[in-house]
Amino acid sequence: MNGAAPQIVVEGLGKRFGAFTALDGVGFSVAPGEVMGFLGPNGAGKSTLIRILCGLLRPGAGRALVAGIDVARDPEAVRARIGYMSQRFSLYNDMSVVENLRFFGGVYGVPRQQMAERVRFAVEMAGLDGREATLVRTLAGGWKQRLALGAAILHRPRILFLDEPTSGVDPVSRRRFWDLIQTLGGEGVSVLVSTHYMDEAEYCNRIALINRGRLIALGTPRELKQLAMADQADAARAAEPTLEDSFVRLVQASAAGSAP
Question: Which of 9, 154, 160, 210 has the fewest Cβ atoms surrounding its Cβ within 10 A?
Answer without folding.
Answer: 9
